[in-house]
Amino acid sequence: MGDLRDLYQEVILDHSRNPKNFGELEGATHRAEGYNPLCGDQGRSRAPARRRPCLGHQVPWKGCAISTASASLMTEALKGKTVDEALALFRKVHDAVTGQPTDELHGDSGLGKLAVLEGVKQYPLRVKCATLAWHALHNALTGNDATLPLRNERAALERGMRHGREDRHEFVD
Amino acid sequence: VTFEKTTYNELPYKFEAGTPDIAGAIGLGAAVDYLNALDRNAVARYEHELLEYGQEALLSVPGIRIVGTAREKAGLHSFTMDGVHPHDIGTILDHEGIAIRTGHHCAQPVMDKLAGGATARASFGIYNTREDIDRLVDGLHHVRRVFG
Question: Higher pLDDT residue, A170 or A46?
């Protein structure tokens, strides 16, 4: 079992106490909900238009320290990124937290601040906590939810709750 | 069975396709024998003692709220800790060799109603002791320190 301090690093604790960029995003063009039926973590990701710099937001996030911090760090990392760059970052984070070897040399994952999330790879049960927001982002950018009318969001979220929506967010490599 | 037609056996065999859960049935038998060898009232008394001791011990930790306060309770406490998600509590306790259950316990509606989401749950059986509960409380103080 890994060192607890690798999991609960100061950066994670800080972001879980004071999550960044939480709130509605005006003019969002992509949106999706993430929900983990096992622990009740849920949140929504927002990102504006394709081919423009992308800015992620979540509202309202309700989750453990890992999922809250991961969502918060995600919003910071997405600033100024294009959709393609955001998707590349999703894959990078996904590989890092699931313990996949990264294609970067010399142990530098290229994740920058997001590298603090790597601690979860020692904790299989917590990997989904770290990836929940990212799966929602991935869905927002690639899935049908991108065109989901706002009035249907509530129903979709409730449907997702009943059917364990999080499974649909699994990214197939 | 063919693509065109399926022939069903009579009841109850039609519902028992494949090898039944033999190990499970033998395990259940062993559990029944084990419980029958014990004085049921003594078991209930002991578990109730642990329950009361556990309640007092848990409530001594700042920010703990016990969920479910019926007079007749089985030997377990569900609880929440202010500002700390149950999964974070579970991971830290796990590190100290203390196993609890965390999350929705496959009962989302009732969890939402009683606790507004997930809870942590410690179960006490005849094989547990007051020392186990003391270790649980020490572990919860550790959780508080991590999340400051």
Answer: A46
The DSSP letter of residue B65 is E
Q: What is the interface pTM, i.e. ipTM, of the complex?
A: 0.72
Check A63 against B85: CB less than 8 A apart.
yes
Q: What is the DSSP string of B96-133?
A: TT---EEE-TT-HHHHHHHHSS-EEEEE--TT--HHHH
- Give catalytic status of residue B106 as yes or no: yes
At A4, the pLDDT band (50, 70, 90 cuts) reads confident
Verify whether the Cβ–Cβ distance A39 to B108 is below 8 Å.
no
- Tell me whether residues B146 and A38 touch, CB distance under 8 A: no
From B106, B109, B113, B131, the catalytic residue: B106
pLDDT in tens, A59-76: 555 678 898 899 889 888
**Candidates B88, B108, B114, partner chain A, best to mutate (most A CBs within 10 A):** B88
The position carrying tokens 């238009």 is A49
Q: What is the pLDDT of residue A41?
A: 55
Give kind and range of the element (H or E) at residue B57.
Answer: helix B40-59
